[in-house]
Amino acid sequence: MSKPIVAIVGRPNVGKSTLFNVLAGEKISIVKDTPGVTRDRIYADVSWLNYDFTVIDTGGLEPETNDEILKHMRTQADIAIDTADVIVFVVDLKQGLVDNDFKVADILRRANKPVLLAVNKVDNFEKYQLDVYEFFNLGLGDPIPVSSASKLGIGDMLDQVVEHFNENAKEDEEEETPKIAIIGKPNVGKSSLINKILGENRVIVSDMAGTTRDAIDTMVKYDHKEYIFIDTAGLRRKSKIKEELERYSIIRTVTAIEKADVAVLMIDAVEGITEQDAKIAGIAHERGKGIIVAVNKWDAIEKDNKTMKNFMADIDTKLSYMLYAPKIFISAETGQRLNSLFEMIEMVLQNQALRVGTGVLNDILYEATALKQPPSDKGRRLRIYYITQVSIKPPTFVLFVNDKELMHFSYTRYIENKIRETFGFKGTPIHFITRERK
Ligand code: GDP
Ligand code: GDP
């Protein structure tokens, strides 16, 4: 169910960003109208053949000295090994093989992950064929010649990337244990929450077999049900560079959310809701996963009978695109409302998988359009013929209309609200696809 993650790793200037941009095409994964989300292209959604996956660019920084470069590449390789299903190691034909390439290849080879070796800047396949063979020496298998600038060899490379997805996909299908990502900025209490859950009597812990060296997924049994908790706090990069830390924190968040069914977004009650919270919330929202907003450290603030209400209002204002997310006020330290958190997770899981019959959907549509006329433009009025739910996780609806251009997002929002009035879909975004039927 979860989308595979492909990470791009390599020295500065080998062409990682160029390759990333070719793969991302126009489909930048960051939704424009989600406030708080930067336009920095760290990750992007890609489709190839019948596969959808997320590509992350682990690069970003431009270190200067050779030592710095190696350190940076090691961190990149680590983060790729931690998060990715397939790693694409990019080297540069023009610069040839350098010492740092061998060192990174050593790290990647030891990881238990598929690694593809892309030799970039092969702008002429015939002319440079022999030069590409040199890269065999890295011990990472057949080098794949590509030219990101001329968009050559990209398809062949992607064929090899998606080949590795099948191995994992089979395991995934059997596995139906719900996955919960605990997300949030540093120090909100992510580790404390996981530790509290593990420490509770009713919870039985077992380490998951077969995970890579940094085991961050934890199986938890609660009230006779099993859950896998994905802890984004487990990995703390030691980098002192702010941009680098920020980049890794975003990559960790994106990849954890991608693997999860429900994300629990933790907010620090003492600090209130900040821009960084909104940024992380935005990522969860646009990935279509279930979301719960958990205000933590509720034990640590002075409260009166308005505190909770005011906090709720503040969240609604700052995360106005996520009004569907239920809110809960917890303490990872005292364990306050842990029970309710699990009940909420159950509810959101059910809502993510809720299917609504076509008959009743069209009744709602009929009533909605009668109450409020669809928009019109230059004398032409939008007509919505039919609505049907096509998928779950997130619940996705197709609207058949006379003219897509006439569909205004505010009217989609209106229909969304009408559907929510009846079915709630609490805790899950719902998606709409508009199709023309002449
Ligand atoms: P990054 O630092 O690894 O992200 O590298 P960039 O994507 O910024 O590219 C570094 C330089 O290599 C830029 O000047 C690109 O235009 C150039 N470049 C990237 N891909 C190719 C390619 O396939 N062929 C050639 N000749 N140049 C390329
Ligand atoms: P993480 O970086 O998100 O994993 O945050 P930690 O779990 O490491 O917590 C950061 C700090 O907040 C630690 O000093 C915790 O003791 C403290 N903390 C976490 N949860 C609570 C809570 O519910 N109440 C209070 N008062 N402190 C908390």
UniProtKB/TrEMBL annotation:
SUPFAM superfamilies: P-loop containing nucleoside triphosphate hydrolases. GTP 2 binds at residues 184-191, 231-235, 296-299. Keywords: GTP-binding, Nucleotide-binding, Repeat, Ribosome biogenesis. GTP 1 binds at residues 10-17, 57-61, 120-123. Pfam families: KH_dom-like, MMR_HSR1. One of its GO terms (biological process) is ribosome biogenesis. The keyword Coiled coil does not apply. SMART domains: AAA. GO terms for molecular function: GTP binding; ribosome binding. Residues 4-169, 178-353 form the EngA-type G domain. GTPase that plays an essential role in the late steps of ribosome biogenesis. Associates with the 50S ribosomal subunit. Belongs to the TRAFAC class TrmE-Era-EngA-EngB-Septin-like GTPase superfamily. EngA (Der) GTPase family. This is GTPase Der. It comes from Natranaerovirga hydrolytica.
